Amino acid sequence: MAILPIVLFPEKILKQKCDKVTSFDKKLAKLLNNMYETMVEADGVGLAAPQVGVKKQVAVVEIEEGSAIELINPEVLEMEGEQTGVEGCLSFPSLYGEVSRPYRVKVRAQDRKGSFFEIEAEDFLARALQHEIDHLQGVLFTSKVSRYISEEELERFGEE
Ligand code: CO
């Protein structure tokens, strides 16, 4: 595996709609493995392929060690409720803001072998999934921030 360089805003690829994956091959498996390693190394809870310079609908999310989810060609099927919370993004170092999103989502995606699966998530996992799925459509969290948060304020959040 390898740690990949993370693409930072304002690189153009971050605002582009990614292409659907059609070959579930070794190259895809390698990309997923490298993305996972890169996300862990960067201390993130999610990473989308455009963030490592690949314009494909591929993302990984892991909000707790050992719970990694690989999403290929993901689609949100249902959403419900609302939550507001603080988000950051590996492509925007040291930038944090409050974002409102649906509280619960149902997502359909493919795994690395191309099999379809559905996942229902709520709360923070639902937030992480939506953040990464947005990336694949070229949508960045900054377009949804209602209020930016300073690092000082963020530390206070962490203590709560
Ligand atoms: Co992000």
UniProtKB/TrEMBL annotation:
Cofactor note: Binds 1 Fe(2+) ion.
Listed cofactors: Fe(2+)
Active-site residues per Swiss-Prot or TrEMBL entry: E132
The EC number(s) this enzyme carries: 3.5.1.88
Record flagged with keyword Metal-binding: yes
A Pfam family recorded for this sequence: Pep_deformylase
Reaction catalyzed: N-terminal N-formyl-L-methionyl-[peptide] + H2O = N-terminal L-methionyl-[peptide] + formate
Enzyme class, broadest EC rank: hydrolase
Residues noted as binding Fe cation in the record, renumbered to the chain: C89, H131, H135
GO molecular function terms noted in the UniProt entry: metal ion binding; peptide deformylase activity
GO BP annotation list: translation
Keywords: Hydrolase, Iron, Metal-binding, Protein biosynthesis
Transmembrane segments: none
Signal sequence, start to end: none
The family this protein is said to belong to: Belongs to the polypeptide deformylase family.
HAMAP family named among the record's database cross-references: Pep_deformylase
Cross-referenced PANTHER family: PEPTIDE DEFORMYLASE (PTHR10458)
Annotated function: Removes the formyl group from the N-terminal Met of newly synthesized proteins. Requires at least a dipeptide for an efficient rate of reaction. N-terminal L-methionine is a prerequisite for activity but the enzyme has broad specificity at other positions.
Record-given protein name: Peptide deformylase
Source organism (scientific name): Peribacillus simplex
